[in-house]
Amino acid sequence: MKTSEIRALFSVVSRPEVVSLAGGMPAVTALPLDVVGSMIGDLVSGMGAQTLQYGSGQGDPRLRERICDVMALEGITDASPSEVVVTVGSQQALDLVTRVFCDPGDVVLAEGPSYVGALGVFQASEARVRHVPMDGDGLIPEALEQALQDCRANGDRVKFLYTVPNFHNPAGVTLSEPRREAIMAIAERYDLLIVEDNPYGLLGFDHEPMRALRARDSQRVIYLGSFSKTFSPGLRVGWVLAPLAVREKLVLATEAQVLCPPSLTQYAVARYLDTQPWREQIKLFTELYRERRDATLESLDALMPAGTTWTRPDGGFYVWLKLPHGLDAKLMQPRAVNALVAYVPGIGFYADGSGREYMRLSYCYPEPDQIREGVRRLARVIEAELDLHSTFDGVDTGAFRAIGGTGRGTPQVPDVEPLVGPATSDRFEEDRA
Prior knowledge:
This protein is 41% helix and 14% strand. It is α/β, with parallel strands linked by helices.
């Protein structure tokens, strides 16, 4: 087990003078905090005997009913509350699923890049991650089928495909409708289990929520959800929707791990869904994030040096940026921190050490003016790194970095060129000088 690239930045991004484009922290100040505070106070004063007591390992029945209502917005209309297991955020949900299915040495297929928290779970379970390439339309079905064929030929045990289909973390792209159908067909042919992680699905800017993979197959897809992005990450309430046989194992695993999810936070989310205009609140969030996404893209368009490319998300929290050839986001990070701007290096989103010329930029938390200033600082850092790279091209710059410079790294580039340039998708745009 090792510290993630994001957690390692916490001491830096907490400094007020640093513009953080690193952490994916929701804008909770957009909530009606006085109303939420009164609601939670009323729960304790009026229902303290229930809200402050142990509860069911599967989770509160009323909350599980409301979770089914939420999932119906993405086409999951056949879900039963009996198939839902409430978890301490969707991170615990992913950990439980991995504990149930994976033995040391098993293979998990995951997009490249992939959510850093998932990679940590798989590593802790001693599973091996094989990345499947992406482009502007999400996971590439042909690459998925090739990975499955290779694993069969090698005698590898593939336990499931892990995917974030909507507004991907970190790439920002969304799996297209034709590819959703193609991936489900491949899963059927190869008897492949899919773990669909969908914390951002209701946060689209330009269209209604897309139909979930779970809505297409109730037995082959395990669905992970969370209220962290649509209500509050601090309450730590997520869930798993799984077939009953799997659900039984998940309940046993959660009882062994935490006995039961926290009662107070479950009641708080259920009361919020029962009494507050939560759909309108989600619309408010999406408009706020759209404004911040636009500020990010406009600033990148105006300021980034030639050779820099990035994704153009239509929802969620993230932009995935590729540096000009030869630059290393990990080696450049100290220079960026010194310039008072933070990002997450791409290496943290690959299990194989690749992705060094990529970085994740998060626009969900800073105000638009902060975003513009952060991008301005980052552009200057990249320009300085390009100048250094040009000056010392072909020279070992390790000595320069040792005395405080950054210099040229030796980036490990992914096998494919995902998520960059106009050749992959209309949502991708090469930068102008």
